[in-house]
Design brief:
Order of helices and strands: HHHHHHHHH
Number of strands: 0
Radius of gyration: 18 Å
Strand content: under 5%
Shape: elongated
Number of helices: 9
Length: about 210
């Protein structure tokens, strides 16, 4: 594999890992704060709104996973990232406009993460497939660290600060940032992803 191919794949995987980690950690870990701050949901009822969120998150990979091998990696990776980004952008707009209540926001997140959970699974799958065997373990660890560092530390801190400020427009802007990252990852995957379905790892590394 040439250096240009490794560079392109590194950019793609890094963007995918950052996007999925940012979206998951920013939205899921601060969801209860949004419910109590903007919708006055009592603390003892927050779990009821998390349930449809979690349900969509589980069903996504279960129902969409087989399509990555039938329709193809490149198509499905790009589609799941682009659709989750578009869904997140639409939810951000509706949240900003005050069109959502606690229930409809939960349903929106359920739909978004039905797709985004499959996209996140694809990120880990891709990181384990597209690099030569001799550097695969190192590649996975590096990109996991990049994604976790960005999404696991920066995103929750940013959203916690935005939510604490009580400005709905600022929180919507944070959601829009996550949407932009997902869409950028989808476009990058459309160009650089590898058609790895039904191929051995050694063969994929040569593509």
């Amino acid at each position: 594999m040439c250096c240009c191919a490794i560079t392109a794949r590194s950019l793609m995987v890094a963007l995918m890992m950052v996007a999925q980690a940012f979206i998951y950690n920013a939205i899921f870990f601060t969801y209860s704060l949004v419910l109590t701050r903007f919708y006055q949901v009592p603390d003892n009822r927050v779990a009821l709104y998390i349930f449809p969120f979690a349900l969509g998150n589980v069903l996504g990979p279960l129902l969409l996973g087989h399509l990555f091998d039938s329709l193809g990696r490149r198509r499905m990776i790009a589609a799941t990232y682009l659709l989750s980004g578009i869904g997140l952008a639409a939810t951000a707009w509706a949240f900003d406009a005050g069109l959502l209540d606690a229930l409809t926001l939960a349903l929106c997140w359920s739909a978004v993460f039905f797709v985004a959970s499959a996209a996140a699974s694809a990120a880990y799958l891709t990181a384990s497939e597209v690099f030569p065997l001799q550097m695969r373990a190192m590649a996975i660890s590096i990109f996991y660290a990049i994604g976790t560092g960005t999404g696991g530390f920066i995103a929750p801190a940013l959203f916690g600060w935005l939510i604490a400020g009580g400005d709905r427009h600022a929180v919507a802007g944070g959601y829009a940032l996550g949407a932009a990252l997902a869409i950028a990852a989808g476009l990058c995957a459309l160009k650089f992803a590898v058609d790895a379905e039904r191929k051995g790892l050694e063969e994929v590394a040569e593509l």
